[in-house]
Amino acid sequence: MSLRLEDLSWSVDGRLVVDGVDCTPPTGALTGLLGPNGAGKSTLLRLVAGVVRADRGGAVLDGEDLLALRRRERARRLALVEQEAVAEVPLTVRDAVLLGRTPHGGPWAGTSRHDLEVVDAALAEAGAGELADRVLGTLSGGERQRVHVARALAQEPRLLLLDEPTNHLDVHAQLDLLHLLRGLTQRGVTVVAALHDLNLAASSCDHVVLLARGRVVAAGGVRDVLTPAVLEPVYGVRCHVLEHPVTGRPVLTFDPLGGPGAHGAVAR
Ligand SMILES: Nc1ncnc2c1ncn2[C@@H]1O[C@H](COP(=O)(O)OP(=O)(O)OP(=O)(O)O)[C@@H](O)[C@H]1O
């Protein structure tokens, strides 16, 4: 049983933004979705979440075609934390996270004691417990990000998709979030996160999928994909791979194509 993306494709204005993506992020693992700006990472996550309707292809979770499910059924299986999600209504943090329980209630169901327990646990787990009574719109970017993660946790998804979840987070909060995501994988949740920070991916991910121009360029373990031969042509930079002195995981350094100290724009 796993997540399988099959030939997922989407185009706009005659341009293929996501172009026949096939990949299988492992179950109960943290997969980093990587690629340069405009590679199609956000769009791919939105396609899998059914926010954008794919022109072609499917996303199969544990044998079920996610895209064929009704929205509410899909929301019981997966949660998406979007980039820069903004609050348009003056909700408190607790109410915003409570929205994550909506797919689990019946049409006339009110808020149950269980819902409130799940919400409190999600807030605590996301490090947002102290924000519970604040108004969402008054939070800082990093605080808001934690609340969006808490809302996704309250959904109790089997598949968690996150678009640049470390945006706005300081280094401590980034590590906390990665720790949280890894904890979820140990409970069997499949997590796919679009990440720009290749070192964060190298230190935290079990699996990575590298996109460029809407296509999968490479997919596999961090040691197989995060190599100069793979990264340099995709990002147009020089890359060196070192070894972390404690974990033994790859640590990447980057230079302009002309080498350290070279000035000017990086060619793409
Ligand atoms: N609704 C849309 N209309 C027109 N172009 C779009 C639309 N959605 C996405 N695109 C284009 O598709 C390409 C991929 O966008 P997407 O946001 O998926 O990339 P990304 O890899 O997430 O980029 P970034 O790392 O910069 O966030 C971009 O060139 C973007 O401008």
Automatic annotation (TrEMBL):
SMART domains the UniProt entry points to: AAA (SM00382)
Domain of life: Bacteria
Keyword ATP-binding attributed: yes
Name of the protein described by the UniProt record: Histidinol phosphatase
InterPro entries reported in the protein's UniProt record: AAA+_ATPase (IPR003593), ABC_transporter-like_ATP-bd (IPR003439), ABC_trnsptr_F420-0_ATP-bd_pred (IPR022286), P-loop_NTPase (IPR027417)
PROSITE patterns registered for this protein in UniProt: ABC_TRANSPORTER_2
Alphabetized UniProt keyword annotations: ATP-binding, Nucleotide-binding, Transport
Gene3D superfamilies in UniProt: P-loop containing nucleotide triphosphate hydrolases
Coiled-coil blocks: none
Segments forming domain ABC transporter: 3-238
UniProt-recorded Gene Ontology molecular function terms: ATP binding; ATP hydrolysis activity
Keyword Flavoprotein: no
